[in-house]
Amino acid sequence: MNHNQPVYTDNDPQNELVTLNLGPTHPATHGVFQNVIQLDGERIVSGVSTIGYIHRAFEKIAEHRPFYQITPLTDRLNYCSSPINNMGWHMTVEKLLNIQMPKRVDYLRVIIMELSRIADHIICNTIIAQDTGATTTFLYLFQFREHIYEIFEEICGARLTTNIGRIGGFERDFNDIAFSKINKFLKEFPVALKEFESLLNRNRIFIDRTAGVARVSAEQGLDYGWTGPLLRSTGVDYDVRVSEPYASYQDFDFEVPVGTSGDIYDRYLVRNEEMWQSLRLIEQGMEKLKNEPAGIFHADVPEFYLPAKEEVYNNMEALIYHFKIVMGEIDAPKAEVYHAVEGGNGELGFYLINDGGRTPYRLHFRRPSFINYQMFAPMSKGMLLSDAIINMSSMNIIAGELDA
Amino acid sequence: MTEVTNKEIIDALTEKFGGQITGVNEPYGLLTLETTKDAIIEVLKFLKENSIANFNFLTDITAVHYPEKKHGIAVVYHLHSMVKRIRVRVKVFIDEHHPTIPTATVIWNAANWMERETYDFFGVKFEGHPDLRRILNMDELGVHPMLKQYPLEDPNRVDKKDEYFGR
After folding, report:
1. Which among A105, A324, A343, A391 would be 20 to 30 A from B75, CA to CA?
2. Which of A371, A372, A373 to probe the B interface (max B CBs under 10 A)?
3. Residue ranges of the NADH-quinone oxidoreductase subunit D domain (chain A) (predicted)?
4. Do B136 and A55 touch (CB under 8 A)?
5. ipTM of the predicted structure?
């Protein structure tokens, strides 16, 4: 037998490309979206991404709702870190209305947003590990998401779609149980994170599956509009918290971790390091809170801040403001404003145009998952199918944010 | 890092494009300007490549519908210079009956899906776009739902009529 000749002929089925539908609902897609890929053996020749399966017309609905009623919509964007979306939206409206926050509110916001970031990164990094076959790490670190949810629950009563903020601050102050839970988390999580890192960072199988896979250069990342940990893994030092600080991030001391090669391993490392930085931020926030007078959890803006229910029942002024705010009678200036926050996946931007009416004239969300994901199909070309799966988990695509 | 001011950017743009740069404004400090659909690609290229500002990053593309205006659809670009830490918003008003504008995918690949989304919602046809299809809505939808002529709620509902609230 001549070994230089292929063992199949032109009519051989082995010579044909295989079309594979990855998704819409598939365990590896982490959400409802579809990739139609053409395979030559195990190698991807081409791919087409289809999204929109859970498109819920957020922007259209937002045009028909007063500012407060838009908050629950933002909760459902990136549902792995809904407080960040929440706060981002409220800060956009505060920017529109020129409301200044008391420092204590800003610090509380930083604590909550960083807890959310940790929750978001836990999901992504443990899922990368899970997709390389390391289920233990996934289950081990996941219990700390549960702890974060318990903190949220203590503050606002909800766990996943939190609705945690208000225009001008929070709906209520953090109670002592919430603070003690945060302290407990600060004590216990570093131990687990360290263990998680020691299980994976130098793990031969994990490195083989991730290092050098799906490598993206800084130029490519910028060209495709990447932000967040994905862009930072390519070596671009861009973080909204540093470049345009909001909620007093300028008062905090933290670093922006960057990678060098932009591969899956670097994305994993960047997210891990960000979790350490988030812990630093929360610790500093807790320390700073000690110097702020307790009990302040919103700015003194009764015409915009939704009063507590007991106030509404017992105070005429509060009742009037409550009614005006709920009916969308907020006197907001005619203006347009763009405000960005650093979400779990990157720059989460809110572009709000207000024409003085009851509802926004136009509201557009710049959703990092949507913009990051468009590179998936082009970058998968030539990749092994099994690598593309890990690549997808490392991009942390959240279907709620992707489709909006 | 050398800082750059909004004025320097505007001066550079007016020197190059003259009367094609209009409507300069700074809401909340964010430089906003208008240009025409003939000039938009050149303006974006200039903003990206000129060393004064170096807006190398395309943050967002979207549109706004103003049915009462003559040129009723505004296509809005948000650009960002990560080096100089400055943003700019560029608007182009186009005719809502023939909403066409050249594609920005020739400058950034990021524009691809952003333009598909804008086409899906507003019907703006980006000329030269490599793959202009709907992206979030189903192909058979037939309308571009973010246009103002498609209200969301049943107009016969009376509980939210403005006249009952003195508006």
Report:
1. A343
2. A371
3. 131-403
4. yes
5. 0.91
